[in-house]
Amino acid sequence: ATPMSIMVGTGRGAREGVLVRNAEALQALDRVDTLVVDKTGTLTEGHPKLIAVEAANGWPENDVLCYAASVETHSQHPLAQAIVQGLKDRHGEPGVLTHFESQPGLGVSGSVEGHVVVVGNAECLKQAGADASPVEASATAHREAGAGVMFVAVDGRLAGLIAVADPLRADTRASLAALHADGLRIIMLTGDSDATAKAVAAQAGNIAEVHAGLKPQDKADIVKHLTAQGAHVAMTGDGVNDAPALAAASVGIAMGTGTDVAIESAGITLAHGSLEALVRARRLAHATMRNIR
Ligand code: ADP
Ligand code: MG
Questions:
Q1: In this structure, what DSSP letter does residue 95 have?
Q2: Which of 144, 176, 193, 224 is 20 to 30 Å apart from 168, CA to CA?
């Protein structure tokens, strides 16, 4: 009955929005005891919205947003889209960008009308030689509310910060509760800051561990480390950044709403991009493997 049961399982899965690459993927999902989830785009909707702009060192707030958006017009990152859209919503026009560089997992930089503009995380700001202390208290407050914070530097000096909110998907809390009840230890990984990550984890519930400030390769290393300790790991993710970690897991689970690179690296794809489908996928895996044994 072996191959037949699996085909039935995968056929039913497809109707429920669970796309299974092969029998091994379903078998691995049945055995999994640890679920590693990416924050952005998996727990959250993945479409951050600008919620605040704060200026420092005498810059007008509008200039801070305008400089940042001018550079971000050349970035594909969801955070870049939030900043560009934020400027549009405030009826601003981006300035002319003459040079652009992207540092994955850190931020972006460029020349805007004769000024060197950097937008990114704390590490990125530090590399630009700028001091974040004037906005540090405000950055902490935004992070503790679960918002993401990016710093803006102009000509090597802090110009302000931009805060974005990326709400939890509607089903996240319930799905994590169901997966936890199904015996999974849930671990969250993110490139975002520790304070934002912990606030989001608290809102989501049932997350045993949080690892923040990660580079794409760090995510894969954590999955490999857990596996070496004897864990059977399922990893979910949506971004190009998540592809190495998806490939390192016993079973990689891509969000169908994410990038093609993630989908190609995964054994299972959740068509509608929500963890609700993973709850169904686990049931399907248990039922199918029970039939075979
Ligand atoms: P995520 O965990 O959200 O997928 P990334 O690994 O892509 O994040 O990036 C980590 C951090 O680097 C982001 O939280 C942000 O602070 C900064 N960053 C990355 N890309 C950009 C960008 N295009 N503009 C500004 N900041 C960025
Ligand atoms: Mg991501």
A1: -
A2: 224
